[in-house]
C-alpha cells in the first residue's frame, strides 16, 4: 500500500505493507533511528511517538493507522539545531543514561508539557509511569521534566 502521512512536519509517501509496525517503518524505511525498541510489546515506552499529538507505542501501531496522520518522533522535537526545552533539560539535569529509554521519555514528557504547561510533580510522575528505565532511578528524569518549562520560558525572553 502507499502510505501518506507527515513525519516531523515533512510529507512522507512510502510503499509499505499495511501491517508493518510503525517503529519498523520509522527506523528502517525512513531512517529515523532515534525511536528505540525496548520490549516490542508496548510495556516499556521506549518507542513512544506522537500521533496527531497523542502518545503511542510505535511497536504496537500498524503503519496503516497513520495514513493521513502527523507523527512526531524524538528527532522532531528539536527545531533544527535548537533542542526542545525538554531535550535541553534532560542534558542539564542528567535525565539520560544509556539512551534506550530516553527517546520515549522525551516524547512522553513533551506530550505532557503540551497538554499541561505547568505540571505538578504528581502529573509528571503519572505521565511518565508507562516508561521504564533500567539504568537509573527516575528522580533526575522527573527533575528534568519539571525544569523543562522554565528553560522554554527563559529561551523565549
What's the short story on this structure?
With 157 residues, the protein is α+β, with helices and mostly antiparallel strands. The protein has helices at 22-29, 85-93, 102-115, 121-128, 139-156, and strands at 2-7, 10-15, 48-51, 54-57, 70-72.
CATH architecture type of the largest domain? Roll
The low-pLDDT segments are none
Could you give the order of strands across the largest sheet? Answer: 2-1-5-3-4
Mean pLDDT: 92
Main sheet attributes: strand count, strand direction, barrel closure? 5 strands, mixed
- Number-wise, the strands total 5
The H-and-E topology, N to C, reads as: EEHEEEHHHH
**Helix/strand class:** alpha+beta
Given this structure, which CATH class of the largest domain is correct? Alpha Beta
